[in-house]
Amino acid sequence: MRFSRTLAALTLLAVVAVPRRARAQAPVPTMEDVLYLRNGSVLHGQRLPLSADAPDVMRLRLPSRDILAFPLADVDSVGRQQRPPGPGAARPRGFGHYTELGALAARNTNSSVNTSAFSFQTVNGYRLRPALFVGGGVGIDLYATQSIVPVFASLRGELPVRRGPLRPFWFVDGGYGFNLTGRDEALPGPVTYAGGRLWAAGLGLKVLFNEQTGFLVSIAYRAQNAAITRDPAPRQELEFQRLAVRAGFAF
């Protein structure tokens, strides 16, 4: 219980910290100059002021930070346009998707069944801003003796730490798990299985292929409530406390 409270507190701290750090970042230029030469070439970059030493030469700084110089007589025209997002650029608002699969490892409470479980889930939603995503998910968790379908809301966001294509992120999930196991009449004394509420919180790392798609890995604490009723015994409450280790992709 102490571990789960600590993880929840750390996740809440990450949620609060992201917008504050994001506002502190320097704005990225969104416009660029387009240089059209008389020979048909088109170059993109930042036009530099004319030099007093060479007033008939136009200079252009390319995205690679190289500077090219051209006689004004070779320049047909100069335009200006929106800079296209480059690899690893922050995504604007819009639809987002996550698909993940992996293992649920650790132990159960109030149960002698402690084997790992297989987990698959997909999350769809809307990116309110580059650092905040809100959506809903559905999946399947296959435990040793039970199969549960989680239906949940998901809140996700990027942490303000970037290294090239690497994007660390946090997430918090909450919802209900529907137990597909139903009722087993074959056991001595019929057994009825029921689902229950669930929640999860964790951290992950996304490796971008481009500005939209990336591979991701994550680790989280996950708690799934369930119950079994073995006639004529009273209902027995269970809680699957697991460490969820997953991999997948996002766009």
How would you explain this protein's 3D organization?
The protein is mainly beta and 251 residues long. The chain has two domains: 2-25 and 90-250, Porin (Beta Barrel), CATH 2.40.160; 31-82, Roll (SH3 type barrels), CATH 2.30.30.100. Helices cover 9% and strands 60% of the residues. It is built from one helix and 15 strands. It has one helix at residues 2-24; strands at 31-37, 42-48, 57-61, 67-71, 75-82, 94-109, 117-129, 132-142, 147-158, 166-179, 183-184, 191-194, 196-208, 214-230, 235-250. An eight-stranded antiparallel β-barrel has the order 6-7-8-9-10-13-14-15. It has a five-stranded antiparallel sheet with strand order 4-3-2-1-5, with no helix packed on it. Strand 2 and strand 3 (57-61) form a beta hairpin. The longest helix has 23 residues, at 2-24. It is rod-shaped, with a radius of gyration of 27 Å. Residues 6-28 have low confidence and may be disordered.
Summarize the helices and strands and which ones pair or pack.
Layout: H1 2-24, E1 31-37, E2 42-48, E3 57-61, E4 67-71, E5 75-82, E6 94-109, E7 117-129, E8 132-142, E9 147-158, E10 166-179, E11 183-184, E12 191-194, E13 196-208, E14 214-230, E15 235-250
Antiparallel strand pairs: 1-2, 1-5, 2-3, 3-4, 6-7, 6-15, 7-8, 8-9, 9-10, 10-13, 11-12, 12-14, 13-14, 14-15
